[in-house]
Amino acid sequence: MAQHNKLLLATMIIAALILVFNFALSAINNFETNLYRYNLSELSNKYFTGITPSGWTFSIWGLIYFWQCLWIIFAFINIFRKVDGNPAYVSPMVLTPALFIAYAIDIAFTITWTFVFDRELIEISFVTLFLVSFTLYICLFIAYKNYATHAPILAKQGRNIELWLHRLFVHNGLGIFATWTTIATLLNLVMMLVYRLGVELQTGGTIALGILTGEITLFVFTDLFFLDKFSRYTLTPYLVVPFALGGSMDKNWNSDKTNSIFTAALLGIGLAALVLKLIMMFWRHCRKPIQPGETNSYDLKV
């Protein structure tokens, strides 16, 4: 007899409702209401950082939220699918209550950030946005760990398409969100340094770019050489970084400015990291499959 998990169902519903509420608030922010004093573009212009990307780059929020919808819908669809007479979402339980609780908290932080930033509470805004990105990495950790544990079971059940949907929807959906908010946190850091602590604009931007350099280096190294079993097919972080840096150059390029040169160098590093990720992902997929049979006809001869 099919057994549902009430705790998991409850956390899924709560996470979905909070996400929908966040969507509604984001839509309201585009109109003149008493709820918000400014829209985000006005505040970005007011608190100029010298490295903030062009306005068109912020259209990525639409893609980020679309991707969140994809993995949440994917989770709900599995409630109604059956595997050996049991609901697919608990046979095995790849997406757990812990993941949905962490995700709901993350979206709550996101909502909080929109209000504290709108009220120009820059210090609190920075801390809140840091918590947004940090919580998303917790979500990724939970998703990776559970997936690695249960992927062999999914493979034995013949749910190979589902294996790839977890990678595409869940891992890459959380990855794009986490990477973009990490970059946004650094922009908020510059705002705090310059407009609250009196640091020079150029210096504030250099500090943020320096931190981003360290983050990129640490991420690429750990992703490619320590976390491959978990994150091999998570590509979105490698796409977001060049996208954001390209947008920054588009808006702020000045060959006489140190931070422009710094940004260009980082863009080159980001693109090189993307190429390296693609090469290693393809090679390992062919030579060192995570699950048996994943290579199919892609076997390489050396």
Automatic annotation (TrEMBL):
Transmembrane segments: 7-28, 58-80, 92-116, 122-147, 168-195, 207-226, 261-283
Keyword set, alphabetical order: Membrane, Transmembrane, Transmembrane helix
Stretch forming the signal peptide: none
Entry keyword annotation includes Transmembrane helix: yes
Top-rank lineage group of the source organism: Eukaryota
Name of protein: Uncharacterized protein
Organism name: Lottia gigantea (Giant owl limpet)
